[in-house]
Structure formats: structure tokens, C-alpha cells
Amino acid sequence: MREYLPLRFRYSRFYWNTLAFLQASEWWSADRLAEYQLDQVKKMLQHCALHVPFYRRLFRQIGFDPNSFCSFSDWTHLPLLDKETVRSRRDEFLAENIRSRDREYYTTGGTMGRPLGLYGLRDAGWRERAFMDAQWGRVGFRNFEVRAMLKGSVVAKKKHWTYDPKQRAFIFSNFHMTPENVAEYTRVIKKAKVPYLHSYPSAVIDFARHLKHQGIEPPRFRAIFIGSENLYPGQREFIESFFECRAYSWYGHSENVVLAGECEVDRNYHVCPQYSYVEVITKEGRLAEHEGETGELVGTSIYNLAMPLIRYRTDDFAILGPMSCHCGRQYKLLRETNGRWLQEMLIGHRGNLISMTALNMHSDVFDQVQQFQFYQREKGKAELRIVRKSTFSEKDERAILKALGDKVGDSLEVELTFPSSIPLTPRGK
Length: 429
Fold this sequence. Notes:
Layout: H1 7-10, H2 13-25, H3 30-51, H4 53-62, H5 83-88, E1 103-107, E2 117-121, H6 124-136, E3 147-150, E4 161-164, E5 169-172, H7 179-192, E6 196-199, H8 201-214, E7 223-226, H9 235-243, E8 246-252, E9 259-261, E10 269-271, E11 276-281, E12 294-301, E13 312-320, E14 333-338, E15 345-347, E16 353-355, E17 369-378, E18 381-388, H10 394-408, E19 413-417
Parallel strand pairs: 3-5, 3-6, 6-7, 7-8, 18-19
Antiparallel strand pairs: 1-2, 4-5, 8-9, 9-10, 10-14, 11-12, 12-13, 13-14, 15-16, 17-18
């Protein structure tokens, strides 16, 4: 079987080429990285002008010529792109020269109750994996090593864990974090001597809570990889103290226009210049340039030719970090990121906590949904409020219930309701 072959045969050549490039460019000078980004963005802008209807029309309207682009100061009049524009005009962002068989559809998790449908190149997953392996490599991880995953994966087994040879990972369901299951997860991790844990902050904290309550000695990991949710003050300190290892945090999102992670010597987020071009835009609309300034993260694709996003507003905010890091990498630094994924929880039948992050869907299951919201008043039961599009059908209703059932199993009963609208919070969420 392919998954048992050596990695050099199992992993795509695109993965190995990307990883080799990241290792070669990791220590480039600031000037060389800036030159690389400028070149990549110019190529993407030229591609957009030729092949992407939305940008072809936009560039013509504002008189922007990508062929004359030679500095990022040349594009300050390019408007920022928001989610609603992409959502309402998605087909106009598709490149005409990319065949449908060479792209794949996926959605964002829908933190605001409105998933965004996107397209990426079919081999993009290998690129993402190479970037993550390179980041984790800063704290010792190697791609042939095994990890434990506690992060929203569906485990269709009664014991709620499995081993996936394709990912070289023990996968544990965080939808079923009961005392008995956590004790079993720990036994498996210790027996296999799994060196790394990959999870959400909320799931790691819940895992530790169960272990501490039962007086179980925690597994001894070399590092814990934490992403997908905000990491709040005090949580890192607790995790590192309890598990006696480094908690490594990174930031990214489904739109794939920003990737940033810590290094081996510092807690600041190092923005990957080989991944995309990233700006921090202040509320006054100018580029943040000094340490401590806060602004919205705005990212530009340099790889996704299928559906490029130029100066895309992520709705996430960051604080600009210092000008340099002792590690020696010439990357832009962020002192802090404030993403959309918080740490809201639903409560299962047995008191198990179910992270909302783990419930996000990256399939088309919510495509016919205008807006949704989970609401809970009773342990083990949750109401999913859905504002339907006119094209919503019973088939969509069944698909949503099945997708949720596959994740939570019998730990949570979900009822669908269909209000005509869902009121926003005072902050518009």
C-alpha cells in the first residue's frame, strides 16, 4: 500500500521542491526576500490582468498596468478586497486559463456564521504541508516523525481514536473528551512514545484538565503545536508548565494569504515571505511600519493562480513586532495576532467540551446557507439556527445533519431551526 512506502515515494515531488526552496531561502537577506516578493506579486498581477475577469475589469477602471509595477508603493491605489465581494462575485475571481480539473473547491470554516467558498490549485495541499513541516522544523519536528492530532478530525470508531499512516499521526476525537477516553488517549500516546501533539489551545487545555482531575501523569512531548484559535495570556504558560515542553504557535487561515509562526528562540510570529505578501493596515488606512502599531492583516496570493486574492482583508488584526529577531531570519515580525477563531464551546451529554473550531466545515455542506449560528441552553443538546438561501432544500438539511453527526456522534444532539434572520452582536458578529 502506498501509505507504507518511504516518504520520498509517497510525498509529491511538489512537496519536496517546495521544502527544498524553503530551506534554501530561509536565510536570504532582507533585500533578496523583498526582490523575490516583488517579482512574485508582479507575476501574479500580470496573470490577473490577462486571465481573471474581476481584476481585468478593475485594473482597466483604475488605470493600473501590472507591467509597469516595480514597487509596492505603486499599488497603494489598488482597493482592498473584502469577503463579501469575493462571496457575491466568486466566479469572476476564477482564472480562465486554469481548467476545472486542475482546481478544487473548499470553504472557510465560517467563524462569523457565513462560510466563504474558494478554489485552489489541486496540488496546493502539498505546498501547505511543506510550509508547516518547515515551520515545525524550527522546534525539532521532522517529516518522518509521528504526531498526535487532537483537532476536530472525524474518528468513525467506537474507541474514538485511530492511526492514519498517510499522515503518520494518531488521531484522537476531541468531540469525545470524557475522563475515560482521555485516559485511553494518554495510554496510547505513552505506549507509542508519540513526540509531538498537534491541537487547538482549547483542546489542549481540556485535555490537561481531565488529566489533572484524574491525577494522570501527562505524556511527555518534545513540543506541542498550537493553531486555529487565539492563544490567550496565561494559556501558553499553563500548557508549557503542565506538559513540560515548548508550545509552538502559528497563525494561518483557509484563504491562504497569510502564514506566520514562531521561531526556536522567540515568541513573535515570523510572517513567511515565501508564502504570500502581507501588509498590516492601520484603521487610518496607512501601512503600519513601527513596532507596537496595530492594524488589519491584508494578504496577497503569490501562488494560487486558480483564484487569486489581491490585497485581501482577513478581518484579523495584529500588532507589529520588532524589526529583527535573534534567530537571524529576515522576516516581518508580529508581536500578536487576534484572529476570528475564539474558544467558544458546546457541552456534550457527558459534560465533554466540543470546540466550535472543531465543528467548522471545509466542504460545500453550507453552500446553500446564508448565515448560521449555534445556540445551546441544555447540556448534550444544541440548536443550529440557519438562515436559508432560496436554493436550500431538504437535501441540504440532511447533508448538514450528517456532516455534524459524523463529527460529534452521539455526544451531542443537534436540532435545526430556520429563522428569517439572526441578529448580530453589538460588534457586528
